[in-house]
Amino acid sequence: MYKIKNRGEILFLYDIQNANPNGDPNDENKPRMDEETGRNLVTDVRLKRTIRDYINEKGNDIFVREVVYNKDGHIQDAKLRAADYLPEDKDKIKEMSAEVQKQFISKSILLECIDVRLFGATIPLDLKVFDGKKTKNVTSSITWTGPVQFKMGKSLHSVKIQHIKGTGAFASGKDATKKTFREEDILPYSLICFYGIVNENAAKHTKLQTEDIKLLKDAIWNGTKGLISRSKFGQMPRLLLFINYKEPNFFIGDLDNLIKLKSDKRDEQLRKPEDYQINISKLLEQIELHKDKIENVEFIIDDRMKFIQNGKEIKLNELEKFSEISL
After folding, report:
1. Cβ distance 325 to 297 under 8 Å?
2. Which helix (H) or strand (E) holds 49?
3. Which of 41, 177, 192, 307 has the maximal Cβ count within 10 Å?
4. Residue 44 pLDDT more than 90?
5. Distance CA 302, CA 310 (A)
6. SS3 240
7. Is the pLDDT of residue 259 over 90?
8. What is the reported pLDDT for 98?
9. What is the pLDDT of residue 167?
10. Which is nearest to 299 in space by CA: 209, 182, 177, 217?
11. From CA 327, how far away is CA 319, in angstroms rounded?
12. Is 218 within 8 Å of 327 (Cβ atoms)?
């Protein structure tokens, strides 16, 4: 495994059909919207949850997950979760000062939890320090800035929320003869764009490795594809682009603003990739302008996606410095 030495940028496109990519709990769980532009929003927290769940399903430990700790079904808070990373030997803990316990937890979490190495964390601590027969509680915290960060995702086109009503499977009440009704809000279609960055400076503090980034790519693509819940079924990854740089600290920036969706149909009529093309002219201009500072551009695409440059269709695998990601 190798340390992250230089900066990287991420551009990720995925779409969803007849579902809700990210409900807003403050608005009856309707799809999140930018009311001014009519575009669909998806929080970075939602994408990170997808990534975490996939990584965990692959047999890797993650810190941010639901852990039931007793027979009553109570769920750990962050302080109890942090205590999981203390030594199992209770007598050994009794010999440790608060600072030694904190260092032990910090080292253990970074060693075992890839989600913290990727996204960082702020973890409150409630430590027990033993002084003879007396015990005192010492509060503290650990903070890491995450090397991998995403902007809020936004659809590349305006969308229209569709309200659906249907019947439930159960009676509306005791001795009732009618079933309950259910209501939900979905999007017929949304092509969502996420922009992210890998910060090599923060990576030093969380011990982020190249193997972690390899798993991140896998999780972004296959985690999105495999997210089969009722509200998320219908999601498909369409493009994942990684720009790897030669120079520390340098990056193009705002990749999400360098691409545009082009279609003969109105935005609200879009239903599938065949309905549009993605204009990447400005993105390719920037890559060409800074090619001496770019190591390579890795990508994976769904073969239904069409890309154009200056009005002409192009193939990414035919471009200089571009190479396909092998998952």
Report:
1. no
2. helix 44-57
3. 192
4. yes
5. 21
6. strand
7. yes
8. 95
9. 64
10. 217
11. 20
12. yes
The pLDDT assigned to 90 comes to 87
- Measured distance CA(63)–CA(246) in Å, rounded: 32
18 torsion bin: left (phi>0), alpha (psi -120 to 50), beta (else): left
Nearest to 158 by CA among 265, 52, 75, 78: 265
Token reading at 37: 């532009």
> Using alpha carbons only, how large is the chain's radius of gyration in Å?
23
To the nearest whole percent, how much of the chain has pLDDT over 70? 93
| Interatomic CA distance for residues 143 and 35, integer angstroms | 35
Contact 43, 34 (CB under 8 A): no
Determine the Cα–Cα distance for residues 200 and 221; give it in Å rounded to an integer.
Answer: 22
Is 299 in contact with 242 (CB distance < 8 Å)? Answer: yes
Place of tokens 């764009």: 193
Cα–Cα distance for residue pair 61/274, rounded to 1 Å? 39
- 171 DSSP β-pair partners: 179
Residues 63/80, Cβ–Cβ less than 8 Å: no
Q: pTM of the entire structure? A: 0.92
Listed residue (299, 297, 287) closest to 321, CA to CA: 297
Taking only the tens place, the pLDDT of each residue in 171-214 is: 555 555 555 667 889 999 999 999 999 999 999 999 999 999 99
In a 10 Å sphere around its CB, with 0-12 CB exposed, 13-18 middle and 19+ buried, how is residue 287 labelled?
buried
Integer Cα distance of 270 and 297 in angstroms: 29
List strand residue ranges (DSSP E) for 227-279, in order: 235-245, 260-262, 277-279
Over residues 127-186, the pLDDT tens digits come to: 999 887 789 999 999 999 999 999 999 999 999 999 987 665 555 555 555 556 678 899
